[in-house]
């Protein structure tokens, strides 16, 4: 039962190579194992006739019957991969093996199901036979007990009969009655065996013998079934082992096939590469006639590139000229800054002189005139207006002195602030200040100019009011003079007092004349301040113009940088295209030298001149790009160096010209012995004139940094 349970649990993992379930002849032939006797080889072979050949061979291989090999070994031998077969045959054989594997799996599945059914049937038959055997044994025990009991009763009855027959006649009636009673009691106890005979005993013994025979047959059949079960288990074990071996061999075969497939794929790739190379060679050979068209297209492309290079050279020259112009503008800015500093210094000196003059004017002119008027003159009505005018004159002079002092100090401060903002604006023009600082400086200049304008207007209004007051004072003074002159003849007695008053009047007139002159000077200074205000407005407009020009210049510089990058990328792509065309031309020359010679002989005269011009232009373009304003002579020298390098790399296909002994700088006309010294001299920053390098990449980075800083 345990083996049956294990088989039921391992149904899914079983892998048995059998055609169909064993036939009935095996069960019939297995009857020879009765009583522990072994079967002959002929009987086993006769019993295995109805089994399929695969199962019979597996059975013989397991039980070592005959010299037949196992089916697994036969199948594996049939699936050995030979090295003489091609990849297509191997793939075909591998597909056939896969199909056979699928078919074998299906057949094994069916055989497993049939074996499972047979094992279930055998186990059920064994259970039924065991049950029937138990039932027969129980019946046999019951019959045996019954026979023993009947024999004992028979013995007792015989003993009673003999005892009764040997008794007396008087007492014979009583024993008879007792015998009848005993018989009636016995008949009442066992009804179906009243008088046991030998026939019944023989029948029972015959039945017992029959039951014993049946029991022996059941035992024999049970042994047959157990033998069949063991044989099937052996077959299952053998097939499972063969299945494992076949699995391992299949894995090995799959690994071999994978390796062969990888090798095959690598060989296929190699063949594909070879085919592609052959196709390319075939195309190059077939398109040898079209190579002349390619050469002409390449010449056209070279001419276009030469045109682009010439345009780039022109643009580079223009950019160099612009750089020089910017440097000149920088020098002009520095000169203008120095001139502005000189003007600021002059303005400061003038302000100091004006302040000293104002102080002197305050001490000499702005002191009010003190008149000693007697009480007699105060009593007169004609001198009342004169005294009031003098007091008003005194107050206005004090107010005018304070006003002029405040005006001069405010103008000097505003002028200093304006000059400071103008200097900061020049710093921004020279890119020394930030945009925010520039904007704040402009706002301060604007506010300062507005304040100065409003303050100047207020001062002009106040000065006009003061001048009107002085005009009224002068009118009163003229009238007073007229009156005094008319009264001088009539008042001879008061000559002494009049002399003193006339002296004071003369002093007053001289002071008034001086103050009038001072007022004229103040008016001229106001006009000068207005002119300076106009100059400040003009400077403001110039600053705005400089700002717009600077922004436009920055945009143009960015645009030039982007155009430069685009041109460099175009040049690189064209160089790559030229290299590809040269490689194709070399391939054509290697594959078909005859066609190459014919094409080159046809194209020597028209194609040599543009290529030479292209080389000179490209080399001069590179030299102009690397060096500042390099002339054609140095370009030719550099061209010779470049051609020598190219000739060394290409196998000296073109003639090499020796370099000159002296190299002349096109800028300063200084001669050098070697080209390296000339390059070190030429690779100098034109802005700072301090940084130099023999590598163009480093020099270009520094030059871009200097231009950005500029």
UniProtKB/TrEMBL annotation:
Return the InterPro entries for the record.
Answer: CC2-LZ_dom (IPR032419), Optineurin/NFkB_EssMod (IPR051301)
Disordered: where is this region?
Answer: 162-196, 600-661
Annotated coiled-coil positions are 98-160, 201-263, 295-364, 512-539, 564-591
Keywords, A to Z?
Coiled coil
Instruction: Give a Gene Ontology cellular component term annotated to this protein.
Output: cytoplasm
Q: Molecular function terms in GO for this entry?
A: K63-linked polyubiquitin modification-dependent protein binding
For bias kind Low complexity, which ranges apply? Answer: 600-623, 635-653
Q: Does the keyword Secreted apply?
A: no
GO biological process per UniProt: regulation of canonical NF-kappaB signal transduction
Domain NF-kappa-B essential modulator NEMO CC2-LZ, first and last residues per copy: 505-582
Matching Pfam families? CC2-LZ (PF16516)
Family annotation (PANTHER family): NF-KAPPA-B ESSENTIAL MODULATOR (PTHR31553:SF1)
Query: Which protein, by its recorded name, is this?
Result: NF-kappa-B essential modulator
Natural source organism: Papilio xuthus (Asian swallowtail butterfly)
